[in-house]
Amino acid sequence: MEYITAFIVGGLICVVGQILLDTTSLTPAHIIVTFLMIGVVLGALGLYEPIAEFAEAGATIPIPGFGYSLSKGAIEGAKSKGVIGAFEGGLESTAGATAAAVLFGYVISVVSYPKSKS
Amino acid sequence: MDNLTNKEYQEYVKKKVPKPDYLKNAIRAFFVGGTICLIGQIIRNSLFRFGFDEKAVATGTAIIMVFLGSLLTGLGIYDKIGKFGGAGATIPITGFANSIVASAMEYKREGYIFGVAARMFTIAGPVLVYGIGSSIVVGILYLIFTAGR
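Predict the joint structure of the above. Result:
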């Protein structure tokens, strides 16, 4: 069951991005940052949590899920450690993905070459 | 053709630029994005079966997806997925990994510092700046709004 909801919700989030891409002059980079910020704001307002509970990976794998994780972590940090926690929390909850992106991104960039455009 | 004003020329160009096939693009984005999330869900459920708790599963899933996105980009496969799926390949976290490897690879000839390491963050940099920056603001706003309680 969760496979179906993950597929549909994840797919729909991407459709919204595709429509923005086709109908506006926004570049993919703009869309990524915009969607991230939407995730941060929805997460802060507690509106992303129910989507994440319903769709699981369908909500956490798209980039708004990264924003949600950031703001959720910051709020949890603020709750337990105050101002210091507000600074630490966002990075803490996304540390794994960020560190993985740095390591794998670097290593794979070093060992591979762009394929010639055909 | 010779005495078009700038505005007329803009309109002429606009007419000539092919209109994207909205429906086809949306359907492709849906299937590619949905499939990537489905793979994420499979990884998530498998990690739960290994006995990890909720937090570890969320982090582990993200790490594996980032790895897959980077690897497929290095192999030149993610490019093809992106060409077909558009935003369906850009918006999942694998697209974030793709943006890192794609630009880092491209600028390797500029060296390992200013080429690879710096160019990794052409798109990932803004994501981290806006994401981390705004998360701190969210945390502080939370403290302000709950201070009286």
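The radius of gyration of chain A is 17 Å.
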